[in-house]
Design a protein that fits this description.
Radius of gyration: 15 Å
Number of domains: 1
Distance between the termini: 32 Å
Largest sheet: 4 strands, antiparallel
Shape: globular
Strand content: 35-45%
Strand order of the largest sheet: 1-2-3-4
Helix content: 25-40%
Length: 106
């Protein structure tokens, strides 16, 4: 499947923003202390979310012979006071299902 067709079919921008909102709400519920530490110097309501990139990845790291892991990676930058401070990455399989996601400081 061509990447641009996949992006339209699954509406990746809407999908990754929905998953980011879910991630943040679960993060706050499950580990409020860590959540507060992560966002300690940020007024949460003033964060801007910028869809950053999407890529088709063929990963052969730790793969056995002829094995490849293929997936879509979508990233959103979190900006506060004109500065990017974190990035959210969501990993989707080729059927449009979420497989993993990460939030990291940059």
């Amino acid at each position: 499947m061509e990447l641009e067709q996949w992006l339209r079919k699954y509406n990746v921008k809407e999908m990754v923003m929905r998953d980011l909102n879910f991630y943040l709400s679960e993060y706050k519920k499950e580990d409020e202390e860590d959540f507060k530490d992560f966002f300690r110097n940020v007024v949460f309501e003033n964060i801007k979310y910028e869809f950053h990139s999407v890529s088709y990845v063929i990963n052969t790291w730790h793969a056995t012979e002829n094995e490849q892991r293929k997936y879509i990676s979508a990233k959103v930058r979190l900006e506060y006071e004109e500065t990017t401070f974190a990035e959210y990455e969501a990993i989707y399989n080729l059927q449009g299902e979420g497989e993993d996601d990460y939030l990291r400081l940059v």
